[in-house]
């Protein structure tokens, strides 16, 4: 078997695996968002704190802590599930969101009545419930990766009658 065939097979398989991971993660996030949109109780978080961390790709939102009042009147401290957004010019550490940004209070949220610490921002639930383009890209990655890998394996394993081997 020629080395180039092996060298071509690895990236095609990696593309397929990456597509499968993105597809599975996107579908899981979509299902969580749709669950919150269908069964979640609306509330407003008037206290929001973002935790920023510095990673390989730069600063990112690591956690979003909120305080809300449940339907029973209790103050609930929770962290958002499935949050999106970028660092928006913040610094490493904990701080409130800047006015006018994605998580600036008053922040409309949804929580699960039986578990009020399960919380998602309404803006995130709406965005994640309709992933559209991400699903298409993930599906293309998976399909192209699997098809390419299949062709490479088929070509590598087919009989080579009448051909010189290198």
Write structural notes for this entry.
The chain crosses the membrane at residues 134-157. Keywords: Membrane, Transmembrane, Transmembrane helix. A hairpin with a 5-residue loop joins strand 2 (58-69) and strand 3. The protein has one domain. The chain is elongated. Helix 1 (3-39) runs antiparallel to helix 3 (133-157). The model has no long low-confidence stretch (mean pLDDT 85). Strands 1-2-3-6-5 form a 5-stranded mixed β-barrel. The chain has helices at residues 3-39, 122-129, 133-157, and strands at 41-55, 58-69, 75-80, 93-95, 107-112, 115-121. With 166 residues, the chain is of the alpha+beta class. It has 3 helices and 6 strands. The longest helix is centred in the N-terminal third of the chain and has 37 residues, at 3-39.
How are the SSEs ordered, and which strands pair?
Blueprint: H1 3-39, E1 41-55, E2 58-69, E3 75-80, E4 93-95, E5 107-112, E6 115-121, H2 122-129, H3 133-157
Parallel strand pairs: 3-6
Antiparallel strand pairs: 1-2, 1-4, 1-5, 2-3, 5-6
Helix pairs in contact: 1-2, 1-3
């Amino acid at each position: 078997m020629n080395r180039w065939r092996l060298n071509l097979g690895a990236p095609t398989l990696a593309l397929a695996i990456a597509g499968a991971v993105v597809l599975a993660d996107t579908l899981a996030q979509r299902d969580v968002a749709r669950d919150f949109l269908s069964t979640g109780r609306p509330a407003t978080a008037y206290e929001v704190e973002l935790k920023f961390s510095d990673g390989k790709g730069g600063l990112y939102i690591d956690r979003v802590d909120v305080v809300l009042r449940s339907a029973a009147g209790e103050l609930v401290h929770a962290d958002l599930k499935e949050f999106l957004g970028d660092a928006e010019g913040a610094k490493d550490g904990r701080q409130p969101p800047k006015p006018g940004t994605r998580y600036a209070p008053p922040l409309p949220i949804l929580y699960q009545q039986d578990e009020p610490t399960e919380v998602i921002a309404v803006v995130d639930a709406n965005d994640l419930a309709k992933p559209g383009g991400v699903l298409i890209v993930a599906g293309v990655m998976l399909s192209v990766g699997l098809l390419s890998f299949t062709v490479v394996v088929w070509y590598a394993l087919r009989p080579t009658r009448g051909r010189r081997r290198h």
